[in-house]
Amino acid sequence: MFEAWLRAFNSGDRAQIAQYASKYEPNRKNAVDQLTQFREQTGGFTLIRVEKSEPLHLQALVKERDGTNYALATLDVADADPPTVKQFQLHIAPKPADIPGAKRLTFAEAVKATDETASDLASKDKFSGALLIARGGKIAIEKSYGLADRDKQIKNAVDTKFRIGSMNKMFTAAAILQLVGEGKVDLGAPLGKYLTDYPNRDVATKVTIRHLLTHTGGTGDIFTPEYMSHRLETRELTDYVKLFGSRGLEFEPGSKWAYSNYGFVLLGLVVERVSGISYYDYVQKNIFEKAGMSNTGSLPEANNVPIRSVGYMRSNGKWVSNSDTLPWRASSAGGGYSTVGDLYRFAEALVGGKLIKPELFAEMTSVQAGAGERAPGEGYGFGMMVANEPQGKRFGHGGGAPGMNGDLRVYPKTNTVIVVLANLDPPAAQRVGDFFDERMPVD
Question: Which helix H or strand E contains 78, and what residues bound it?
């Protein structure tokens, strides 16, 4: 059965995928659409080896064809006639120690190879965006690929603004840490100290600012059916509290890690209450202007933002605009727009101590208690993904939603930064970042 799935999946042909689904997964809703979309994201999988094989259970290690990720596929089969899929899961897995990684290159070679890969992916309509790589404070490449607007045939440029999804969380975390550095916010204080009228008492009294910054507060997500039915009416941060403020905790704060967009919405509200101005005005004045980020913002989608790309998502095998999925306006959890140059300037300002105090920057970029191992070898700091690699610790954040993908990675040991932005579905940008990560020099 696994062989049948892999053959149909790798074909990328809807008819073959539909034939597989009707035979082996007849009760799975939208199976063909889901499998086809996943195939487009990964390029298919190469079977590395079967790890376990039993009559009704199989585990196999596979690798993305278009990316660097390995995954463990787990298949459980129902004991029925004919047999059907009971459960099928794919989980990211670390690269096995017995499989050699990509060859490490010199910095110049890695930059050249990454450019060539981005160009190749763009020629295959699998990447459209911009790339910046810098080392030692000097930009080695700043280049664009693909189209910003397919209908008007407008090409992407290095100053094209791309929607960045959850990368906004880095700005929100920096804003909170600025206020911590000024003695206006306490990391250990409960949310209710700042949002005194918060509806749910458990959330207000048990969840701390530190919990929110590290996704360990149990505050849940915002992308629910309730939100989708009020998507264009949810315009201010307070509107999210109207939707979710009475909701209880998903788990005891500090007991586990679960990515929470709502937690970062609440952090944005803390910024507003403490500073006395809107979240958007605060980050504009205290983050963007200080870092020299003149092409970054969160204006409503209805506003005409010059040189902002159109986002494209896959639907029935074609790229279509993501306009019907966008929020009315970005929040402190994500959804703004920026350029590769601005995000590089943000990284430089953060590392250079222009935005927050050194001791808080050190905490921001260190794995926090209870926030480790989000992915193999990776943990979470304050609004930052953190990982230890052969080339030293790296930190940064990605962002992804239909029609948008972004990736910022900073390597302090070698003073290297890579920024990739795309106006296509994930993992368009991440795939390019992964390629460079595996080949960049370790010193």
Answer: strand 70-78
pLDDT at 435 over 90: yes
Q: What percent of the chain is helix, strand and coil (3-state, nearest 5)?
A: 35, 25, 40
Residue 314 in any domain: the answer is yes
pLDDT > 90? residue 100: no
Residue 435, beta-bridge partner list: none
**What does the pLDDT read at residue 41?**
76
Residue 99 in any domain: the answer is no
**Under 8 Å CB-to-CB from 188, ≥6 apart: which residues?**
208, 209, 210
Q: Tens digit of pLDDT for each residue in 150-207?
A: 999 999 999 999 999 999 999 999 999 999 999 999 999 999 999 999 999 999 999 9
Domain finish residue from 58, 93, 128 = 93
Residue 440 covered by a domain: yes
Q: State how beta strands 138-145 and 392-401 pair.
A: unpaired
Distance, CA of 218 to CA of 212 (rounded, Å): 9
For β-strands 392-401 and 385-389, DSSP reports them as antiparallel
Which residues, 6 or more positions from 10, have their beta carbon under 8 angstroms from its beta carbon? Answer: 39, 44, 45, 65
Q: How far apart are CA 370 and CA 382, in angstroms?
A: 12
State the CATH number of the domain containing residue 145. Answer: 3.40.710.10
Q: How far apart are CA 212 and CA 320, in angstroms?
A: 35
pLDDT for residue 65: 87
- 311, 244: one domain: yes
In a domain, 12, yes or no: yes
Residue 262 has φ and ψ, to the nearest 5°, of -65, -35
Do 360 and 315 form a contact (C-beta atoms < 8 A)? no
Q: By residue range, what is the domain housing residue 83?
A: 2-93
